[in-house]
Design goal:
Blueprint: H1 2-18, H2 22-32, H3 52-82, H4 96-111, H5 120-143, H6 156-180, H7 189-218, H8 224-251
Helix pairs in contact: 3-4, 3-5, 3-6, 3-8, 4-5, 5-8, 6-7, 6-8, 7-8
């Protein structure tokens, strides 16, 4: 009994002494042994491939993280351009190209899963995850293209398109954040509704905007180059909002 008590007391005292130092020790280890590769792909553990449901959940978490990163960068670019300011890269932030590469890696990862899902629920979850992955890949591809956000200062309609896109990006980030966080079990229905509303409004606006902007060339108000550039920018914003909406909706199983 004395020996058991001694060992128990020794362990308890050791824990109490070291507990306040855990954060400092963790930061020291991270500096000595920095994590290699993208923080996005840390979810793609090869050991998860043996169990389809675990592999799907790992990809789902990764998509949510990539969605947060891309939408955050797009929102920052829209906001900066609307204020007439240059976009400054955030230190240690995940880039769009990095997110795109991680999403491609996720496709390969899912292709290596050992066997089909074991139930109808797991099959539906896999299907929703694949839809979310496809839309997130299109989102990253569009964001990685050449989008001239400076045209958003050209007219009230351009500014409105930027506002709708920024609102869509904020809402998608909110939904993705809840998917990624294990403690956040309730999905923000309000954020998803806002996201769908912004994407739908932008799609409706894009149809009339194209006709009006190109018509301004015939009236001598705009040059052909300027009109086409503005149309392409709004089309890209609409695509960003749409893919963000569909990816977020499928992530939470409400993709229809």
């Amino acid at each position: 009994m004395l020996l058991a008590s001694y060992h128990t007391a020794y362990n308890v005292v050791g824990v109490l002494v070291l507990l306040p130092l855990i954060d400092r020790f963790t930061r020291l280890v991270e500096r000595i042994l920095p994590e290699r590769g993208s923080p996005l792909t840390r979810y793609l553990d090869p050991s998860a491939l043996e169990t389809p449901i675990i592999a799907v959940e790992a990809v789902r978490r990764m998509i949510a993280r990539a969605l947060e990163a891309v939408c955050g960068l797009v929102e920052a670019a829209v906001a900066a351009a609307s204020r007439g300011e240059p976009v400054h890269p955030v230190k240690n932030a995940i880039s769009v190209s990095e997110a795109a590469a991680a999403l491609r890696q996720a496709q390969v990862f899912l292709s290596d899963v050992n066997g089909p899902p074991g139930s109808d629920d797991e099959q539906r979850r896999l299907t929703s995850t694949l839809h979310a992955l496809d839309h997130a890949s299109h989102l990253a591809e569009t964001a990685n293209g050449k989008i001239d956000f400076w045209t958003l200062r050209s007219s009230p309609d351009d500014a409105r398109a930027g506002e709708l896109c920024a609102e869509a990006m904020r809402s998608a980030t909110s939904v993705a954040g809840e998917v990624e966080a294990p403690a956040a079990l309730a999905v923000s229905t309000e954020a998803l509704v806002r996201l769908e509303h912004s994407a739908t409004q932008l799609e409706e606006m894009q149809r009339s905007y194209r006709s009006t902007t190109l018509g301004a060339v015939a009236d001598g108000i705009l040059s052909a180059d300027a009109a086409i550039l503005r149309v392409e920018t709004v089309r890209s914003l609409q695509a960003l909002a749409y893919h963000a909406w569909r990816s977020a909706a499928h992530l939470v199983g409400r993709g229809g």
